[in-house]
Amino acid sequence: MGLLRIMMPPKLQLLAVVAFAVAMLLLLNQVQKLEESLSKLERAIARHEVREIEQRHTLDGPRQDAALDEEEDMVIIYNRVPKTASTSFTNIAYDLCAKNKYHVLHINTTKNNPVMSLQDQVRFVKNITSWKEMKPGFYHGHISYLDFAKFGVKKKPIYINVIRDPIERLVSYYYFLRFGDDYRPGLRRRKQGDKKTFDECVAEGGSDCAPEKLWLQIPFFCGHSSECWNVGSRWAMDQAKYNLINEYFLVGVTEELEDFIMLLEAALPRFFRGATELYRTGKKSHLRKTTEKKLPTKQTIAKLQQSDIWKMENEFYEFALEQFQFIRAHAVREKDGDLYILTQNFFYEKIYPKSN
């Protein structure tokens, strides 16, 4: 017997298509409302957690007006650049905070905008410097560098960061927007459904893989000035280099993350005691992996490397890498393939006047 085909009249077909389109729009609208509700719920939970901590400190007794101990007054800001192993590193801070007795706070900006409004800058600086209940504190979020000195504060926070080879970072971000990663595999991503490879995107001159998308690490270190976000600005790169040297305690690279953690543990044990061992053995400390990521071809890499934007971002990356390796060379020694932190290499002598 032949297959029985039921053909719908053209008008009914059109009506069915329209009905399906309307249903999809309604569904997308509901999804958007659910996401907005989830965002409000997350903010409410965060406010509740903060109130609980403040109440707990109140019950324990108010802190003295006298200045906090130097280590207890310490604040670290990790203004993390996207797709540089920032989640992997932040997980270590969360895992250690209870044991090492400090607070971890995520700076969640609307739509992940790295530039704060002037009024939010004032609020943020005030929170960081005067929120004693949250000290010692480790703040992290996708925000560009903010100069606390311009707000007249007496003690600035300690800035740290990690950067990555600019093309590798862009490739990782490209596939992350489409396929997500193994950290939250069920979360729907912005470009989900787009199967185009990074190579195909570059060959077609797509916007998601354009050289302009490389311009991110420089402005994150440059800061909140308008020129920082002017793609290809030589001034922005020079300012980013200045800030890296003068305003950041330590800047590591994704490719040598364990060494970065080891140096932090040696220099800032109040926060990072136990971090190196945790990174080596902890399940959550390993690098999260972007799903479906395909390495670009040599032709694709060569095409991107022709742009002045890549040359500047790569120059900044090489500058950061050289600085990190210089610091590491003066802090560790290698033996049998392993690195060891140097013990104290200075002492005091000829102390006068002599005590009786």
UniProtKB/TrEMBL annotation:
<keyword id="KW-0325">Glycoprotein</keyword>
<dbReference type="Pfam" id="PF03567">
    <property type="entry name" value="Sulfotransfer_2"/>
</dbReference>
<dbReference type="GO" id="GO:0000139">
    <property type="term" value="C:Golgi membrane"/>
</dbReference>
<protein>
    <recommendedName>
        <fullName>Heparan sulfate 2-O-sulfotransferase 1</fullName>
    </recommendedName>
</protein>
<dbReference type="GO" id="GO:0004394">
    <property type="term" value="F:heparan sulfate 2-sulfotransferase activity"/>
</dbReference>
<comment type="subunit">
    <text>Homotrimer. Interacts with the C5-epimerase GLCE.</text>
</comment>
<keyword id="KW-0808">Transferase</keyword>
<comment type="function">
    <text>Catalyzes the transfer of a sulfo group from 3'-phospho-5'-adenylyl sulfate (PAPS) to the 2-OH position of iduronic acid (IdoA) or glucuronic acid (GlcA) within the heparan sulfate (HS) chain and participates in HS biosynthesis. Required for metanephric development of kidney formation, suggesting that 2-O-sulfation within HS is essential for signaling between ureteric bud and metanephric mesenchyme.</text>
</comment>
<dbReference type="InterPro" id="IPR007734">
    <property type="entry name" value="Heparan_SO4_2-O-STrfase"/>
</dbReference>
<keyword id="KW-0175">Coiled coil</keyword>
<dbReference type="InterPro" id="IPR027417">
    <property type="entry name" value="P-loop_NTPase"/>
</dbReference>
<keyword id="KW-0333">Golgi apparatus</keyword>
<keyword id="KW-1133">Transmembrane helix</keyword>
<keyword id="KW-1015">Disulfide bond</keyword>
<keyword id="KW-0812">Transmembrane</keyword>
<keyword id="KW-0735">Signal-anchor</keyword>
<dbReference type="InterPro" id="IPR005331">
    <property type="entry name" value="Sulfotransferase"/>
</dbReference>
<feature type="coiled-coil region">
    <location>
        <begin position="24"/>
        <end position="51"/>
    </location>
</feature>
<keyword id="KW-0472">Membrane</keyword>
<comment type="similarity">
    <text>Belongs to the sulfotransferase 3 family.</text>
</comment>
